[in-house]
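pls design
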């Protein structure tokens, strides 16, 4: 998720550690693993609960609507400021998704189905939000798109589309599995650059903090949470 360059390995590593090249820096002198820089960046959690009460929020790709529902139940949350969407059309929602959608509506939340994350203009025209949240995006395919992993292409296109619907000082929030494999799949820094954002900030994500949250994949009823125990939330701004 982080890349440092230099004319030599020592120069690249010293830039990663100290922020600039160090004369005579010896990589063998390090007494701690290099990945500590990443761990420090992941030490905090993104404050979803606090953010949900400040400004309008759009949820994208809510497989069963459980994440947005849990946050919408916050005692200070205002339902009319929240829009929760799924990629699936209404007729293909699971029973759980349909029940959660009904609960959201009772809380005053707007629920929309059949929303394409890469073509938000089709649904929202010129409407803007303070934040747009996409939990565990995954196209469930390894067939390359434009010479890239399809998930990297999805993220890049989503960021470009979301940029048209952000208020001033707005942000895009994406949560994924935190592993070298997914780092290579999404290439978040590259996607941010292509879509015109600053490099993302990275936070830790613990699904157990969110009562009732049970992530569901779009293409099936499996969950990204089942076979992994480390997750990261990326925030993008312009």
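designed seq:
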């Amino acid at each position: 998720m982080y890349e440092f360059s230099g004319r030599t390995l020592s120069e690249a590593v010293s830039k990663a550690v100290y922020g600039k090249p160090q004369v005579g820096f010896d990589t063998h002198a390090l007494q701690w693993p290099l990945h500590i820089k990443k761990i420090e960046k992941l030490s905090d959690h993104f404050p979803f609960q606090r953010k949900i009460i400040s400004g309008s929020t759009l949820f994208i790709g809510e497989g069963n609507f459980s994440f947005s529902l849990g946050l919408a139940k916050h005692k200070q949350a205002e339902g009319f400021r929240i829009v929760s969407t799924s990629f699936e059309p209404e007729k293909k929602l699971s029973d759980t998704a349909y029940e959660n959608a009904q609960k959201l509506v009772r809380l005053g939340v707007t629920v929309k189905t059949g929303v394409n994350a890469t073509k938000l203009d089709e649904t929202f025209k010129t409407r803007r939000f303070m934040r747009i949240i996409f939990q565990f995006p995954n196209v469930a395919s390894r067939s390359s798109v434009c010479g890239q992993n399809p998930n990297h292409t999805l993220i890049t296109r989503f960021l470009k589309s979301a940029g048209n619907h952000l208020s001033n000082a707005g942000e895009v929030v994406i949560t994924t599995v935190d592993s070298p494999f997914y780092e290579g799949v999404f290439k978040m820094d590259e996607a941010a650059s292509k879509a015109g954002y600053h490099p993302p900030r990275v936070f830790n994500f613990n699904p157990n903090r969110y009562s009732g949250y049970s992530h569901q994949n779009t293409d099936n009823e499996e969950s990204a949470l089942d076979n992994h125990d480390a997750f990261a939330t990326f925030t993008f701004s312009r």
